[in-house]
Design a protein that fits this description.
Belongs to the D-alanine--D-alanine ligase family. The protein contains 10 helices and 13 strands. It is an alpha+beta fold and 331 residues long. Strands 8, 9, 10, 11, 12 and 13 form a 6-stranded antiparallel β-sheet that branches.
């Protein structure tokens, strides 16, 4: 039987400014749709919550194993927003790409993720959760402030580096008007690196990492773009550093129990490497997303990447215990 793919996404809508950069361009979705269709799948693009829920719940239970949802929904505001699709699919016994709801929810919270991973020896900069403009910084200056639960560099600019108490109070007050919690962490001044890990638990593979170069001193929301790839990747990473980042990345994947794919960002300081964050819902645009470039640097095509991710989603569905409740109740 021919398998079907639902591309569940937030398409750009000027009537929804809250989406900011947590959306996909129509060009990206059309390219993914065309590429997946050429792999032999039927493809449907759905971008409204009611539509997505209606289509999935109306798939006959005995046919759900032949469908898979590609999770591109990132939403806004809610700390659970990247877990909407995985939770729904698991509850309905429908395969999906990427990690479970629990992994998505944890990794969206940068502070909790850092605490968890640091307890297992993953090197991360000292950090502090900021909930009020009256919170006192416990980390020595200079430090860096950013939203605790956002991606795409939202809320990050050149002024997020803080050198004194007066700046801390001013920037904290401004950011807390928009974001419910902030992360303060030791400022790391050296180069940033990124890497992808693909696979399911017990069988992960890490791509070679790359330096991420960008205009200015901060990877800000002005640099991140859905129209073009403004930053550049430098794959000339010394072998010792590359091995270290791959080691930590594979360990992070095992500790989190990620599925399908994750992208991890690191930064250097005095030749030491520190984990910045884990992105469990990375972009898959061939225009402006980093993960496809990391994959293609290994000599494999964009089409092979999408096919591999779909196969990993079906594999997870067939073998992971988290689907068993729904499978037993949907017979």
């Amino acid at each position: 039987m021919k398998r079907s793919v639902v591309l569940a996404c937030d398409l750009y809508d000027p009537k929804t400014p809250e989406l900011c950069q947590e959306w996909e361009s129509k060009e990206t979705i059309l390219n993914m749709e065309d590429t997946i269709r050429k792999l032999g799948y039927d493809v449907a693009v759905l971008s409204h919550p009611t539509e997505i829920a209606s289509v999935l719940t109306n798939i006959p239970p005995n046919d759900r194993k032949n469908w898979i949802v590609w999770n591109l929904v990132e939403g806004y505001h809610s700390p659970n927003r990247e877990a909407y699709i995985p939770a729904l699919c698991e509850y309905l016994a429908i395969p999906h790409t990427g990690s479970s709801a629990s992994v998505q929810t944890l990794t969206l919270d940068k502070y909790k993720t850092k605490l968890f991973l640091k307890s297992f020896g993953i090197p991360t900069a000292d950090s502090q959760l900021i909930l009020s403009p009256n919170d006192i910084p416990k980390i020595p200056f200079p430090l860096f402030l950013k939203p605790n639960g956002e991606g795409s560099s939202l809320g990050i600019g050149e002024n997020n580096r803080i050198d004194q108490n007066e700046d801390f109070a001013r920037v904290t007050s401004k950011l807390l008007e928009i974001y419910p919690s902030l992360l303060a962490e030791t400022y790391l001044s050296d180069r940033e690196l990124t890497i992808a890990v693909l696979g399911n638990q017990g069988n992960y593979q890490a791509t070679p990492p790359a330096f991420v170069d960008y205009p200015g001193s901060v990877y800000s929301d002005l640099v991140k773009s859905k129209e073009s790839f403004v930053e550049s990747l430098d794959f000339h990473v010394p072998s010792e550093l590359s091995n270290s980042i791959q080691f930590y990345s594979l360990k992070v994947a095992e500790l989190l129990g990620s599925s399908g794919y994750i992208r991890l960002d690191f930064k250097l300081e005095k030749e030491e490497v520190y984990l910045l964050e884990v992105n469990a819902t990375p972009g898959f645009s061939s225009i402006y997303s980093t993960l496809p470039l990391l994959w293609e640097n290994t000599g494999r095509t964009y089409s092979e990447l999408l096919n591999h991710c779909l196969e990993l989603g079906f594999e997870e569905y067939n073998h992971h215990f988290r689907y068993q409740y729904a499978k037993d109740r949907n017979v």
